[in-house]
Amino acid sequence: MSETLEKGRILSEEVNPGMEAALEARYGALLPGMAQGVVDFAYGQQYGRPGLPLRDRYIATIAALTALGGQTGPQLAVNIAGGRKAGLSREEIAETIWQMSLYGGFPAAINALNTALAVFEAEEEPDAA
């Protein structure tokens, strides 16, 4: 196993438990190796890089997904949840999203705020981890 894959698996399980298995179950038959590739590249080679704290990487990711618009809702939800585990407050996430209203527009920011609210509500459910 490569060093970046090993590092990626550890990090992805910290901030997004079960992601690799979920990707494999959903896409593995169609696209073998995709789940491992995502973990290796996204978490091992990108999120795990030195030079920028993980929480700041999540701010950048949440901002980008917000500006890209509503079609990124599922990925935004995953990254908001990961950002929370990396130490971002609800206020920091909301402010990051709202800042993007200047760049992605008000509809994109409002859709992203709705996604954030859904993630925050899920955090309050009794079985939420």
Report the sheet with the most strands, covering strand number, pairing sense and barrel closure: none
Shape: globular
Number of helices: 8
Q: Total number of β-strand segments?
A: 0
What's the overall average pLDDT, rounded?
Answer: 95
Helix content: over 70%
Strand content: under 5%
What is the element string, with H for helices and E for strands?
HHHHHHHH
- Gyration radius (Cα, Å) is 15 Å
Distance between the termini: 29 Å
- Going by helix content, strand content and strand pairing, the class is mainly alpha
Q: Would you identify the regions where 5 or more consecutive residues have pLDDT less than 50?
A: none
Would you write up a description of this structure?
The protein has 129 residues and is mainly alpha-helical. Helix content is 74%, strand content 0%. It has helices spanning 3-15, 19-27, 34-47, 54-68, 73-85, 90-99, 101-104, 106-123. The mean pLDDT is 95.
